[in-house]
Amino acid sequence: MRALTTQAKPTPTVSALNKDEFRVFELARKEEYNHNTSKYVFKLPEGTATLLPVAACVLLKAADEEQGPKDQKGKPVARPYTPISESDREGEVDFLIKKYDTGKMTPYLASLQPGDKMAIKGPLSKFPWTPNQFSSVGLIAGGSGITPMYQLLTHSLSLPDDHTKFTLLFANITSADILLKEEFDALQQKHPDRLSVVYVLDKPDKGFTGPKGYVTKELIKQHVAGPELGEKVKVFVCGPPGQVQALAGKKDGMKQGALAGALKDLGYSEDQVFKF
C-alpha cells in the first residue's frame, strides 16, 4: 500500500490588512490571560495573514463607530497595538491587551464577545529592523509595552544568521502582571548566548530574587551595553507614558520627541534610543 503524504500548506502571500484603510474583522476567541489582560484572536480571510514587518503595529478602532469609544471632540478613538502572533500565520491574528479602567479603548475591548467586530488598519512601521545592524540591543519594557519587544525578539532569534545580542529589562508591579513570562524564559533558555532577561518588580513576592522597584539608571548601566559602542548599540523603550518619560523623555504623539530622562543622563544619544 502506498504511503499517504501530506503537503505542507503554503505560506500566505496576501495580507489581510491595508495600511490606508480600516478593514473589519470578527473576534473569534477571547481568552483570559491574567487578572487584567486578555488574548484577543481575530479571524482573517482564508489564505491571508497579517504579513506585518518586524517592529510594526496596527491601529484598532470600533467597527461600529456610534457604539465605540470617542475622544473629547467626539471622534472615534483608534489605538496602536502590536500582534503577538507570527506575521505569516494564516487566518488569524492574536493580540495580548491589558485593560486600563481609565482608558478609552481597553474597557471597550474587554466588553467584546466572540462574533463582535473591530476595524483594523496597518501596518504602521515603527523601526526598520536589519539583522546585525547592532551588536547589542537593550529592551526596556513596562507592563503591556512588552508586545513590540516580544515581536522583535521572536523574529531576530529565529534567524540563524542574526547574531544581535539582547538584554530585556521588564518592569511590572507583581509577578502576576508579567506577560509572556513562559515564552521569554523559553527563549532565554534556547538562546542563552543572545538573550538575557531581567524581571523587575515594584511589589515582589516572597522568594523573588531580581531587582526590586523601578528600572533605574544604575540597573540600566549594570545590564545594558553603554553608549560608548556608538552605532552598534540601540536601546528600545516601551511602556506606560510615565515610565517612558522617566527613562527616555516624553513622546510627541507618533513622533519620538526629545531624548531626556535616565538614558540621556547615562550619555546615550537620540540616535541610540527608540521609543515604541
From TrEMBL:
Cited SUPFAM superfamilies: Ferredoxin reductase-like, C-terminal NADP-linked domain, Riboflavin synthase domain-like
Biased amino acid composition, Basic and acidic residues: 65-74
GO cellular component: mitochondrial outer membrane
Organism this protein belongs to: Calocera viscosa (strain TUFC12733)
Primary location: mitochondrion
Name this polypeptide is given: NADH-cytochrome b5 reductase
Record membrane topology: Single-pass membrane protein
Compartment(s): Mitochondrion outer membrane
Keywords associated with the record: FAD, Flavoprotein, Membrane, Mitochondrion, Mitochondrion outer membrane, NAD, Oxidoreductase, Transmembrane, Transmembrane helix
Catalysed transformations (reactions): 2 Fe(III)-[cytochrome b5] + NADH = 2 Fe(II)-[cytochrome b5] + NAD(+) + H(+)
Start and end residues of each FAD-binding FR-type domain: 20-130
One Pfam family named in its UniProt record: FAD_binding_6
Co-factor(s): FAD
Chain spans, region Disordered: 65-85
E.C. number: 1.6.2.2
PROSITE patterns assigned to the protein according to its UniProt record, in alphabetical order: FAD_FR
Homology family: Belongs to the flavoprotein pyridine nucleotide cytochrome reductase family.
Listed GO MF terms: cytochrome-b5 reductase activity, acting on NADH
Protein residues bound to FAD: R79, P80, Y81, L96, K98, K104, M105, T147
